[in-house]
Amino acid sequence: xTATLRIRLARELRCGVWGAEAAAPAANNFAANPSLDDMGxxxxxxxxxxxxxxxxxxxxxxxxxxxxxxRRMAPPLLREAISDQPSAIxxxxxxxxxxxxxxxxxxTGGDSPDQRPxxxxxxxxxxxxxxxxxxxxxxxxxxxxxxxxxxxxxLAPPQLICLxxxxxxxxxxxxxxxEKPMIRQSQRFEFSAxxxxxxxxxxxxxxxxxxxxxxxxxxxxxxxxxxxxxGGPIDMAxxxxxxxxxxxxxxxxxxxxRFDHKHLNLDCPEFAQVNPTVENIAxxxxxxxxxxxxxPLKLCAVxxxxxxxxxxxxxxxxxxxxxxxxxxxxxx
Length: 332
Description:
Blueprint: E1 7-16, E2 42-51, H1 63-83, H2 100-107, H3 141-155, E3 159-168, E4 171-176, E5 183-195, H4 204-211, E6 220-232, H5 244-259, E7 262-263, H6 264-267, H7 278-289, E8 298-307, E9 310-315, E10 329-330
Parallel strand pairs: 5-7, 9-10
Antiparallel strand pairs: 1-2, 2-3, 3-4, 4-5, 5-6, 6-8, 8-9
């Protein structure tokens, strides 16, 4: 019996939120379209489609239709969400869409910089801007859910199965159709550590043949990158899964402080009898974080990059990430 194949296609929209309108022609789609023509938020929105391949065109979906739909429908929602929260960008030199008109006027002899209003938000007693606490903003799970609900019917068929919104190269959120209403949130961290690859179950010659220079008795080092993914329902009051500072503090205390600037074989009891391969490092980090997040939050995945070319992923279940783009080995 012939196995049924599942075909998935990922397409990324790179978008300057306060840049040119989506209808404007873009000479450089690789950088961004809509382009970013001033200081302001830049996001990456990735849509993952699934369905059968058309027998005539050989395509799952017409990429022109996919691009036009993303560029027409996503940027207005992104602008609306960020413009609702000026305190998030106060003091950065960035202005909401309504404030940019003064900038345009200044180019043509209009308002001077001193005459242009600047976005103001709530401030603390010291006069510094308060961190955003409302239900709007680029870090908002409600925004991702709204984008998914608007784009899914506009793109069908095929089926939109995953939408990823990246506010930076190191922080993004995902909504998977099969997991709704759960949102996934991922952030990157880094730590530097030395290790020696050596198995006590092998002879010295066998270790040398298997691990080569990586079994040097004095060890060698890596700048590891760690990506931690958690999932759960959106807090209706804040629009977030968890305060970002709590998320970062948990990973820092349980992982980064434990392994950073250490010789894993010599300084870390976890690796006293465990060969510190990237697979075992990722597995032990997952175990360190498994019970760190209280229900309804859960740890979904841990990914460790030993080098830009070598990554290991450990997941809580057998689910396969919908998004492509990472070469990885799985340790489950």
